[in-house]
Write a structure and sequence with these properties.
single chain, 92% helix, mainly alpha, 2 helices, 173 residues
Length: 173
């Protein structure tokens, strides 16, 4: 038996064994291998499909997130504008109320001043009337025949009244 040139019987047996093993592999091995490859291909395709879906969902989530952020910024801007407007209105209302209150206080003060002024004028008129009555009473009591006597008497009365007026002012203060 020569290893380099095999016998014809050995070749037949080797061919026959090869064909049997080929038949067994084709009949039983290839379908299993093919099924495994197909299952793996399907699994890979499913995984790729799920990855694409996940990527699409992520893109949609990113878009939604950007939209929410934009909406939030718009809402924040709107709220800040409303707050600024409300603050301005409150300040304007406070200014108006303060102005009205100041006007009321000023009007009351003017009214009080006018009342005090009127009271003071009445008091002065009363004093003048009393002084006039006192002067007339004293003039009537004394007989003044001459002009010189009248002038002296008037000067003396004015001095007395001035002295009593100063005394009266000191008592009221």
């Amino acid at each position: 038996m020569n290893l380099i040139t095999p016998d014809s019987g050995l070749l037949i047996w080797m061919t026959l064994i090869f064909l049997v093993i080929l038949f067994i592999v084709v009949k039983f091995g290839f379908p299993v291998i093919t099924d495994s490859v197909e299952k793996r291909t399907k699994r890979i395709d499913e995984s790729l499909k799920q990855a694409r879906e996940a990527e699409d969902r992520m893109k949609n989530l990113a878009k939604e997130q950007e939209k929410l952020i934009a909406d939030t910024k718009l809402e924040q801007s709107r709220i800040l504008k409303e707050a600024a407007e409300e603050r301005r209105q409150i300040i304007d209302q406070a200014k108006t109320a303060a102005r009205d209150e100041a006007d009321n206080i000023l009007a009351k003060a003017k009214t009080e001043i006018a009342a005090e002024k009127e009271s003071a004028i009445r008091e002065v008129r009363k004093e003048v009337a009393l002084l006039s009555v006192k002067v007339a009473e004293k003039i009537v009591r004394k007989d003044l025949s001459s002009d010189e006597a009248q002038a002296d008497y008037l000067n003396r009365l004015v001095d007395e009244m001035s002295a009593s007026g100063n005394q009266h002012k000191t008592e009221t203060n």
